[in-house]
Design goal:
Strand order of the largest sheet: 6-4-7-9-19-18-17
Oligomer: single chain
CATH superfamily: Class I glutamine amidotransferase (GATase) domain
Helix content: 10-25%
Shape: globular
Distance between the termini: 19 Å
CATH topology: Rossmann fold
Largest sheet: 7 strands, mixed
Number of strands: 19
CATH architecture: 3-Layer(aba) Sandwich
Order of helices and strands: EEEEHEHHEHEEHEEEEHEEEEEEEHHHH
């Protein structure tokens, strides 16, 4: 584990700052860097809770040469734990906030909705922050969750809190937080200082071995073992949370409109079978056939495409209603969040952006009141679509290594 044990050079008080997500810019002679910061809300009662995916940013963060995916040029050399005490190495220091979370925040703020802000790191420490929220909103890529966070969000939906997932590959890896002692013997990052002024903070480490045989909790506390949520020793299926399951990387396909009369499409002018080019990718989810999925569930987007050579699969976007009356939307594609912005490099067609922004606005507006499914019911349409029972590209042997190389 790489840790930047730097002396603090400045302290920025945030007393009196409005709750919300910020990007700080640090300027020095000839250089600038960004730092993402969330001034979190004390509670979310009656508001839409926007959850930034900081644990996922950190999992991919290779500052100092190691991440949960790679180290020394290979998956085998990866870290089993990563520290928040180091800068992000991508987006000029902003991590993955700009493509996956910032567009959601901007669109929600633009529409003047009642909002509350946290990161998933906050929810991992304080799962009760979801209490009383009208809705919980997850951005484009929130892959790493703790077990208490998973249970808290699921329980909130069961109480009537709406859930919008504007991404894919959600709640795929189970991780846990730990104190700095987990990093005993950790590598010191380039330019780091280890003097008496260095700081060590509790629970600043994300543990994710990705292999139960490497995790001492696999036997003593199976619910906290750091492996796929869907795998032993304590399996939890993604469809119990979002209604779908992670399926494919790499994905690159259009989103095909399946039900233009669905209430979320109001005002978009979409037509039956219209294809929204390149909206699906680079990872995608889909519904799996069987008894485990929630009902009633409306498929609002469906596409068939190859997930790599010789692996035909599908992607689905869905809306369903929980027994509590909570409405749940899951986009099933990472590019949905990017398309919520005025510019998305992956999607050149401005009409696609307009449709996604209108649908997202309609959803967020309806989700500002709990139990949106009572006034916006779902019709069960899943059985109309081709959905292979076999997983395409995420749970086969060697999956972990393949995902380590995806970047």
């Amino acid at each position: 584990m790489v840790v930047a044990r730097w002396h603090p050079t400045a302290v920025l008080p945030t007393i009196g700052w409005p709750e919300g997500d910020y990007l700080l810019r640090l300027d020095a002679t000839g250089a600038s860097r960004l730092v993402p910061l969330t001034v979190r809300s004390a509670d979310a009662h009656g508001r839409i809770l926007l959850v930034a995916g900081a644990m996922t940013w950190q999992a991919y963060n290779a500052w100092g040469g190691r991440s949960l995916y790679e180290g020394s040029g290979s998956f085998a050399g990866r870290s089993y734990a990563v520290s928040f005490d180091r800068p992000y190495d991508d987006s000029f220091g902003a991590g993955r906030f700009p493509p996956f979370d910032a567009p959601v925040v901007r669109l929600a703020e633009k529409n003047g909705l009642p909002l509350a802000w946290v990161t998933d790191y906050d929810l991992a420490q304080h799962p009760g922050l979801v209490q009383g929220a009208a809705a919980i909103v997850i951005g484009g890529h929130a892959e790493y969750w703790t077990a208490p966070m998973w249970e808290a969000v699921r329980a909130a939906v069961a109480r009537g809190t709406n859930l919008a997932v504007f991404g894919a590959n959600t709640a795929y890896w189970r991780v846990r937080l730990a104190g700095a002692e987990t990093g005993a013997g950790a590598e010191t990052g380039a330019g780091a200082e280890t003097g008496a002024g260095a700081r060590t903070n509790a629970d600043r480490v994300v543990v994710g071995t990705k292999d139960p045989s490497l995790d001492p909790l696999a036997r003593s506390e199976p619910s906290g073992a750091t492996t796929h949520f869907r795998d032993a020793p304590h399996p939890r299926l993604e469809e119990d949370l979002t209604g779908m399951r992670y399926d494919c990387f790499p994905a690159d396909a259009p989103w095909t409109v399946t039900d233009p009369h669905w209430w979320g499409y109001a005002g978009t002018g979409v037509r039956q079978g219209e294809q929204l080019q390149r909206l699906v990718g680079p990872e995608s989810d889909r519904v799996y056939p069987g008894r485990g999925r929630p009902r009633p569930m409306t498929v609002v987007g469906f596409s068939r495409f190859p997930c790599g050579p010789g692996r035909p699969t599908a992607q689905t976007g869905v809306y369903w209603v929980a027994p509590s009356g909570a409405g749940v939307f899951a986009a099933g594609t990472m590019r949905w969040a990017c398309a919520m912005a005025d510019r998305c490099p992956s999607i050149p067609d401005a009409r696609v952006l307009r449709v996604v922004q209108r649908v997202s606005t309609t959803l967020l507006t309806a989700f500002a009141r709990p139990r949106a499914g009572v006034t916006h019911p779902a019709t069960d349409t899943v059985d109309r679509y081709w959905l292979p029972a076999r997983n395409t590209g995420s749970a086969a042997p060697g999956d972990v290594g393949a995902r380590g190389r995806k970047g």
